[in-house]
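Friendly challenge for the regulars: who can give me the structure tokens for this chain first? No prize, just bragging rights.
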Amino acid sequence: MLRLFNTGYAVLFILLASLSVAIAAESAFTGSESCSSCHAEQQRSWKGSDHDLAMQHTRKDTVLGDFNNTEFSANGITSRFFKNDGRFWVNTDGPDGNMQDFEIKYTFGVTPLQQYLIEFPGGRIQTLGIAWDTRPANDGGQRWFHLYPDQTINAGDDLHWTGAQQNWNYESKMYLNNLIKVIRNRDCQVIVGGYTSEDFIPTDDYPTSWQLSAEFATAVTRYFNDVGKIDYTRLAAIGYGKYQPLLGEESSLKTKANNRINIIISDL
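First reply, four minutes later:
Bragging rights claimed.
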């Protein structure tokens, strides 16, 4: 079940799958191939580089770790890495401390280590605390290791892989803090639009995508007011539901891209 926080602006940090910022106009994701027509040489240099390969969907040619039913123990937890029907999984302790199966959705990095990202409902992406050492075996690599080997980190701790500090979307806070500086120094109106993906799942708290998308937008306006001291008379929050997706059903990135916030800053 999708669980959200209704108080404060905590929802902001667990639900921003992407942050799209526009100055009086919305923008859309176009992909790296759109750069090649004007920057062909740079595109060729970038293709296949560590930057190009930094974050990829899990496939047999992108996953470097050993998922052949391999076990790794750390901090009293034995995790198991395995494959099922061509997909990559880990059995490890979840947010409630119980052992659960989680599908690995993305890889991050290629050398000297590779980390693994797991999607939670609502577009939240968490970074697993166990990584794969991609160095050659004779250099001490080709093994699983824990990012916090000397600490016991239990479920509920912010440093636990399901906690706030391991949330891939957490850096949205930095973008918003930078925007606050811009808004403070401009005579402007700020319109925050919230959107959900088309695969929205109703819950008791959010029976429709309209309500959830409005909560996305309202969370940002609350943050602007609480943290940035931006007066509410300069802020507006609008929920668009699931009806204006950036990417269609054919895209593997649709959930991440369509769960989003657009911020329009319009000079008065």
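The first strand starts at residue 18 and ends at 22. Residues 209-226 form the longest helix (18 residues). Your move, everyone else.
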